[in-house]
Recover the amino acids of this structure.
């Protein structure tokens, strides 16, 4: 394009020159012709857009970047107080800035800060030199060199110097601290199942880390409550090495078992808070015995029996009354321990005083839970004879008629929350039920559902002196079961009884999650491990779920981490770094299109002690950094030497500049001026 431009431009100029010669006698037109030539040239420049280029030479000063470590460990070096360290670092920054050189100062931990130096606090929860190297690399073309003031202890990121191969400027390092690290041992991790069947062996693997000059044997102790279950002696080697202690135990107590791992304390140990760690394991029975006693078979019997048979790990014994006898013999009932005894349409007649005494003794000695389904054949006097076992009495309130009535769930109860989480709670959606037992619960017995427009309960349950009991007061449970069949809520009866009976069986809700954090108390920057599973979920169902854990703190926004399924150990897992100090609650959620399971808990994050495990100067690393970049290492005591390295350097650059007339407003202005002058001349000579 530029060649054509100059060809046309020369041709035009020659043509116009010939015209000027031809009309040289008409001198008054020469000015107009000259202006026309200029206008044409400007238009030619703007239309064909030739590029005009020239070179600029200029110099600018390169700068030095200075980085000072603000992590927790910098405040614990024995020969240097935190205030002294900060004051001396700020003094170095000031001296560097006062030299005839460009400098820029930063603090760092696992991030880079260009904050106000007067507000610096040594509270960084981890040290990551990799971020410092990346920051240097980003602005390398503007730098003469860099200075890093640190103890060289990396507690986050990889201790990898490959990044330095891409840096061409020298990095000078100032080593802070003693060469002898302080002593500390810590329980690094506890590996144990989150849930186990009673009687099965449980392996517990404990990983301990040791820092400093340690060459001692320590005692690792395992407790359940205050009872010592075992101890192991292990040899520690220090310098950040790891050691393992293994225990094998057989839990015998059902429910949540609380364990604690403790280690002996070494002389001069800097932090003893990490020498003890609690953890929990849920212990379940392999089989739960449930007795169903039916006074007379009725419409409720079949659905109740069907639901019970499908409850995982529940073994059902069904006793049916026939006149004065039972099939099978009631003697088997008296001789067999049961976790739950369910009465269906029973008793048909008031039970004898002797029967009450034997039943009471059985319930108390075996800690059996009891539940009653009201039946169509149960008479008022007969049912009243067993009311004392359920801690209820006859209600003073009555209904004008016993026709079927709408009912609703009481607010804030676990069953309502459970059904709501599974999308099975809608007001007025359930079929009306017929009241049978008009009762009033005593203290510690809660009403979970009520008949509409009354205080009469449909469902009650509670625990008195360690014994659990409950009553379904309607005589047509089968109505709820069958009328919900082939609807979107057909599982309501099954889920209701499963959730209710799991509480009576003391399985802690086996439809719940069994997740555990590897600790309850963490330090800033420490890795949090979350592992667990849904105990009864088969492998084929696992992958339909998605899971996540959400941390909630009053001062911070909620943080969510995704759970990933590990097919190797068939557990859900995630890992993340403990953040700001404080007390946190957490919620673990597992969900798919049909079900939602939640588990809640709490954890505490203390101020960082991880940095305290390595309170010493890592001279080898700092030497390597400086040598790899043609810099120099100096100890803290000789820090003034580093200022002598800071000199001003100028960088000269040649910049090629380009301009096109149609991209500049100057062309338009020039064209307007030329046209205005032409118009003015034409007026003067009378051509317009």
């Amino acid at each position: 394009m530029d060649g054509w431009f100059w060809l046309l431009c020369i041709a035009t100029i020659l043509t116009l020159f010939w015209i000027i010669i031809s009309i040289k006698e008409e001198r008054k037109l020469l000015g107009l012709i000259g202006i026309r030539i200029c206008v044409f040239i400007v238009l030619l420049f703007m239309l064909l857009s030739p590029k005009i280029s020239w070179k600029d030479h200029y110099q600018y000063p390169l700068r030095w970047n200075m980085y000072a470590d603000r992590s927790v460990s910098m405040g614990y070096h024995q020969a240097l107080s935190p205030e002294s360290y900060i004051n001396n670092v700020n003094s170095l920054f000031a001296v560097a800035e006062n030299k005839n050189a460009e400098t820029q100062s930063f603090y760092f931990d696992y991030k880079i800060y260009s904050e106000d130096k007067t507000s610096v606090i040594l509270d960084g929860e981890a040290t990551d030199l990799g971020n410092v190297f990346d920051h240097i690399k980003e602005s390398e073309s503007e730098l003469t060199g860099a200075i890093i003031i640190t103890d060289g202890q990396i507690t986050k990121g990889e201790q990898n110097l490959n990044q330095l191969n891409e840096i061409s400027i020298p990095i000078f390092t100032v080593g802070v601290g003693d060469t002898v690290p302080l002593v500390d041992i810590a329980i690094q991790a506890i590996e144990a199942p989150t849930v186990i069947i009673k009687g099965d062996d449980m392996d517990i693997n404990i990983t301990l880390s040791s820092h400093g000059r340690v060459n001692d044997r320590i005692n690792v102790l395992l407790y359940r409550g205050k009872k010592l279950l075992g101890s192991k002696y292990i040899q520690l080697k220090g310098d950040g090495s790891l050691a393992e202690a293994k225990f094998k135990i057989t839990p015998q107590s059902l429910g949540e078992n609380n364990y604690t791992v403790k280690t002996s304390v070494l002389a001069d140990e800097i932090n003893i808070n990490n020498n003890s760690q609690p953890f929990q394991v849920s212990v379940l029975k392999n089989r739960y015995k449930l007795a169903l006693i039916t006074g007379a078979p009725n419409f409720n019997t079949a659905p109740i029996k069907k639901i019970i048979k499908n409850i995982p790990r529940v073994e059902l014994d069904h006793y049916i009354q026939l006149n004065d006898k039972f099939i099978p013999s009631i003697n088997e009932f008296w001789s067999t321990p049961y976790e739950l005894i369910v009465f269906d349409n029973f008793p048909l007649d008031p039970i004898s005083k002797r029967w009450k005494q034997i039943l009471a003794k059985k319930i108390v000695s075996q800690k059996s839970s009891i539940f009653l389904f009201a039946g169509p054949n149960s008479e008022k006097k007969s049912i009243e004879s067993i009311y004392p076992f359920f801690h209820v009495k006859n209600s003073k309130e009555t209904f004008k008629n016993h026709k079927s009535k709408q009912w609703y769930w009481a607010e804030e109860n676990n069953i309502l929350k459970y059904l709501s989480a599974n999308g099975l709670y809608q007001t007025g959606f359930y079929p009306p039920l017929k009241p049978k037992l008009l009762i009033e619960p005593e203290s510690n017995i809660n009403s979970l559902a009520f008949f509409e427009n009354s205080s009469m309960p449909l469902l009650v349950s509670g625990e008195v002196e360690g014994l659990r009991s409950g009553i379904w007061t309607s005589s047509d449970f089968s109505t709820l079961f069958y009328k919900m069949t082939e609807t979107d809520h057909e599982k309501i009866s099954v889920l209701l009884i499963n959730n209710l009976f799991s509480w009576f069986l003391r399985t802690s809700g086996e439809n719940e999650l069994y997740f555990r954090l590897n600790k309850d108390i963490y330090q800033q920057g420490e890795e949090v491990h979350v592992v667990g599973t849904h105990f009864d979920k088969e492998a084929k169902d696992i992958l339909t779920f998605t899971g996540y854990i959400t941390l909630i703190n009053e001062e911070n926004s909620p943080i969510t981490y995704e759970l990933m399924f590990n097919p190797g150990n068939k557990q859900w897992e995630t890992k993340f770094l403990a953040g700001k100090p404080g007390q946190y609650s957490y919620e673990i959620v597992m969900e798919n299109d049909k079900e939602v399971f939640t588990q809640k808990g709490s954890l505490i994050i203390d101020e960082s002690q991880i940095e305290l495990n390595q309170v010493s100067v890592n001279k080898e690393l700092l030497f390597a950094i400086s040598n790899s970049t043609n810099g120099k290492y100096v100890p803290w005591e000789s820090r003034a030497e580093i200022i002598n390295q800071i000199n001003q350097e100028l960088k000269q650059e040649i910049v090629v500049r380009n301009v096109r007339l149609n991209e500049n407003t100057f062309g338009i202005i020039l064209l307007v001026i030329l046209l205005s002058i032409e118009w003015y001349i034409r007026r003067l000579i009378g051509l317009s």
Q: What stands out?
A: The chain has four domains: 2-59+661-684, 63-181+615-648, 288-504, 515-614. DSSP finds 16 helices and 35 strands in the chain.
